[in-house]
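tokens incoming
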């Protein structure tokens, strides 16, 4: 019977699937970070358990880490963050797990580091105690975010109890206008299909618009599958994937690589395979997107205006828009391009890879950050940071007046001291614009790296085609 890519990966990893029981899945790679693992390791200690296969586990410090240049442990913002970091260090040491610590040359955001080092490879099952684990799905991986009690379970057994998700195909065809990136496509998908379209599903993204994305772009798209409510996002491995993986530090090499490639190529969904649900979207002529509200689905074309709640007939939706506009300090009918910002944040596991920084730098070169705007670039990993420095991107940013930081989650979630103040408005390349996400009272507009860069130099939400 023809199978989807997800089903193929599921079938090769199911350890036990008995009627009336939750299926048990073998996990190939377990990534972990300081924010969601302390209780999991504490649970192992209490029960006197070891990590079952420590060589499959890699721990990263990313959420609580300071990003100022020359950072040290004393720079950690508060006691709770310091405890998280120190606990991660102790746990990694005591349980024999590899750790990319604050001063490691490989440190970075877990979802940037995993693919970059070849820790996540096509066909794998990958888990992490973090919702945006879906990012790794861009390589053709079933990559799923899990809760802390599941982290403990996977550490102890290498297995995950997992209800089999439903399958969904979102096929995206067409050619967006130049300057439009995967981030705009992701926002368009969520704006069109809603923030709960993917509930209980694994989304496979396919179609010509997805095939023409780089792996970095596919990661941005799969990263935001979570904001469409999905368990995970995936893209079938193709030649672009194989070129991306070749030569990565933990990827197989030589003959083993060639054998792996054969298997990876067989992962694509078979012709005639059935999904539980299917959508088709056309991004022909799509223009840059920007969010105006407090969910990633509250988005519009950069050429547009803030919606008028009065035009919404559904009372619940109307109240939602009213509340969002109130929080965001926006007026119905206001042109997006007239909205001034205080801060621009380029970073997060959505958009902090070197390709993102190249695109942003392209729009910044020879320009200055607008007066009164604070603009910061937080590369996704030390490797991204090094490469951006070698390529001269860091200099472009610094010369323009951007702050050039050390890697971490930073202002995406504001757990490390990088945050907005109440009422501050930010154009951000991250994935969540919930109330208070970037700091209490902070106002977030989700945008692509190109739009963020254009906004930094103009001081207003900008159409990158017009600066
Ligand atoms: C801290 C962590 C649990 C959280 C997640 O799971 O996604 C964070 O990374 C986020 O982006 O909100
Ligand atoms: S960068 Fe943001 S979305 Fe990504 S893992 Fe960190 S906090 Fe979560």
């Amino acid at each position: 019977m023809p199978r989807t890519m997800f089903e193929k990966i599921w079938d090769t990893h199911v350890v036990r699937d008995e009627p009336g029981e939750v299926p048990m899945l073998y996990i190939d790679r377990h990534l972990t970070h300081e924010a969601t693992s302390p209780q999991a390791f504490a649970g192992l200690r209490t029960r006197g358990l070891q990590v079952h296969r420590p060589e499959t586990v890699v721990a990263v410090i990313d959420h609580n880490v300071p990003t100022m240049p020359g950072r040290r442990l004393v720079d950690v913002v508060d006691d709770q963050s310091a405890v998280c970091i120190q606990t991660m260090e102790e746990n990694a040491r005591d349980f024999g797990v590899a750790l990319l610590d604050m001063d490691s040359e490989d440190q970075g955001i877990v979802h940037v580091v995993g693919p970059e080092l070849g820790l996540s490879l096509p066909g794998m099952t990958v888990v992490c105690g973090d919702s945006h684990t879906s990012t790794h799905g861009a390589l053709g991986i079933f990559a799923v975010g899990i809760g802390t009690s599941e982290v403990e379970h996977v550490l102890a057994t290498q297995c995950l109890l997992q209800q089999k998700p439903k399958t969904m195909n979102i096929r995206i065809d067409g050619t967006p206008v130049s300057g439009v990136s995967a981030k705009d496509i992701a926002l368009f998908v969520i704006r069109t299909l809603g923030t709960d379209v993917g509930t209980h599903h694994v989304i496979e993204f396919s179609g010509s618009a997805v095939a023409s994305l780089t792996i970095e772009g596919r990661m941005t798209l799969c990263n935001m599958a979570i904001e469409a409510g999905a368990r995970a996002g995936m893209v079938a491995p193709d030649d672009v994937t194989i070129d991306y993986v070749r030569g990565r530090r933990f990827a197989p090499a030589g003959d083993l690589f060639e054998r792996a490639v054969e298997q990876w190529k067989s992962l694509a969904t078979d012709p005639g395979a059935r999904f539980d649900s299917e959508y088709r979207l056309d991004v022909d002529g799509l223009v840059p997107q920007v969010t105006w509200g407090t969910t990633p689905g509250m988005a519009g074309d950069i050429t547009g205006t803030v919606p008028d709640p009065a035009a919404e007939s559904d009372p619940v939706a109307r109240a939602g828009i009213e509340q969002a506009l109130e929080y965001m300090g926006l007026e119905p009918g206001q042109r997006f391009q007239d909205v001034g910002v205080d801060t621009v944040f380029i970073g997060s596991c959505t958009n902090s890879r070197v390709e993102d920084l190249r695109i942003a730098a392209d729009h910044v070169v020879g320009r200055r950050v607008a007066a009164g705007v604070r603009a910061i670039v937080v590369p996704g990993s030390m490797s991204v940071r090094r490469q951006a420095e070698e390529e001269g991107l860091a200099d472009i940013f610094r010369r323009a007046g951007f702050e050039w930081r050390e890697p971490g989650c930073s202002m995406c979630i504001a757990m490390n001291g990088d945050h907005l103040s109440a009422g501050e408005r930010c154009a951000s390349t991250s994935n969540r614009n919930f109330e208070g996400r970037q700091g209490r009272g902070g106002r977030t507009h989700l945008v692509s790296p190109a739009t963020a860069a254009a906004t930094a130099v103009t001081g207003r939400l900008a159409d990158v085609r017009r600066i």
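note: The mean pLDDT is 98.
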